[in-house]
Amino acid sequence: MEIVFLGTGTSQGVPIIGCNCDVCKSNDPHDKRLRSSVLVKIDDVTIVIDTGPDFRTQFLREGIEQLDAVFITHPHRDHLAGLDDIRAFNFIYKKQMPVYGNSNTCKQIRYEFFYSFTTPRYPGVPDIDLHEIVDTSKPFYIKGVEVMPINVLHYKMEVLGFKIGGFSYITDASYISDVELEKIKGAKILVINALRQKEPHLAHFILPQALEIIEKTSPRVAYLTHVSHSMGFYSDVENLLPKNVHLAYDGLKLKIEN
User: What is the arrangement of strands in the sheet containing 157-164, beginning at the earlier edge strand?
Assistant: First the structure.
């Protein structure tokens, strides 16, 4: 399995428009963050989790030419806005693109991308095969690849994380129940959101909370994503973290042996 971090930033990305803080002005490429998204390749199956407004840029940067399914964690624009660009794969494959999300996400997709669901179909619109994930207690399958949904809360909004083999991905979480934590215990790689170092946030884990989740679930290694400029410089934060925890960055590639 190969994992590619397409983006690791929060909703405004880093740098933020109009911000002159030291992190936003940093010349270190590790401090440049597009909106959070990750690509998972397992055998001959390629899955993307979230299609934010940087989706096209991310795919072109990484030279990605295959996509078999799209998972959307929740319907906020920084995770959904680029869904229209799956059209490229509709044209390549001459078929619909499977897109998976919970009830709220599917409802928002039908609203924001209404032109994909009207009849008669306008030529060239995204061709979406929408799948609502109703039961998060059992896995579903993409071309034989088992995927377990993980239900978390983003303040009061239900957000989906996903476990694929030894890889677990959770973003935009502020609470994870004990039942859902059981799903990710002992993961080979855990990715979890950490917005900033100190100031609490209503809807996002901050660094101490993310580290607490990591300690509870004991992954082999953990990576922090959905990071804001308030986290600080990549180089500084890396030196603060436990040995098995790292700050993810755009373009980072990881492998898990099957």
Answer: 140-142, 145-154, 157-164, 167-170, 189-193, 221-225, 245-247
Q: How many CB atoms neighbour CB 122 within 10 A?
A: 9
Is residue 203 within 8 Å of 172, Cβ to Cβ?
Answer: yes
Contact 51, 85 (CB under 8 A): yes
Query: Vertex 251, ends 166 and 95: CA angle to 5°?
Result: 75
User: What single letter denotes the amino acid at residue 72?
Assistant: I
The Cα–Cα gap between 150 and 152 comes to: 6
Peptide bond into 120 cis (omega under 30): yes
- Would you state the structure tokens that stand for residue 7, as one six-digit string? 């983006």
| The pair of three-digit structure tokens given for residue 54, joined into one six-digit string | 């940087």
Q: Distance between alpha carbon 223 and the CA centroid of its chain, in Å?
A: 12
- What pLDDT, in 10s, does the model give residues 130-159? 999 999 999 999 999 999 999 999 999 999
Alpha carbon distances (Å) from 146 to 47, 143, 175, 216:
12, 9, 24, 24
Q: Which residues have CB under 8 Å from 90's CB, separation 6+?
A: 96, 97, 126, 127
Question: pTM above the 0.85 mark?
Answer: yes
pLDDT under 70 in the chain at which residues? Answer: 258
